Amino acid sequence: MFIVIIGCGRTGSRLAGHLSSAGHDLVVVDQNEETFQDLPVEFSGFEITGNALVHNTLEEARLETADLCIISTDKDKVNFMISQLIQNKYPGTKIIVKGIEPKLIDIYDHDKVTVFSEKDILVDKIYNSIVSNEVSG
User: Fold this and answer.
1) Secondary structure (DSSP) of 97-130
2) pLDDT, tens digit, for every residue of 98-108?
3) RCK N-terminal domain spans which residues (predicted)?
4) What are the chain's domains?
5) pLDDT reported for residue 43
6) Are 11 and 98 in contact (CB under 8 A)?
């Protein structure tokens, strides 16, 4: 699968390593070239320094041929704007978005975008470990 990851912070860089190890073809896009230093040694894809809200950056990332785009910046509003741009320019591309504030998850069209809230996932994991009595100590 050909995947474009937008945002190379902690989430994006870890995903890039895992997906690269699993044999997927990857392009990672970030405005800050220094963030590519966080990519794990398993990463074997391409790095593009640029603003994903600029159409030329998305063309350079070959988004028109991507099977999936993962949007993982640290700003909800930026993630939303990028998802809207991709939906309009590349309507066949599947989109996964990292949501930061759970209350903003509802702004997305969930028929077109899959959103994962960091805080909801953490709360669910903690709660499930408590109710299933998997807490150490």
Assistant:
1) EEESSGGGGGGS-TTTEEEEEHHHHHHHHHHHHH
2) 988 767 777 77
3) 1-123
4) 2-131 (3.40.50.720)
5) 94
6) yes
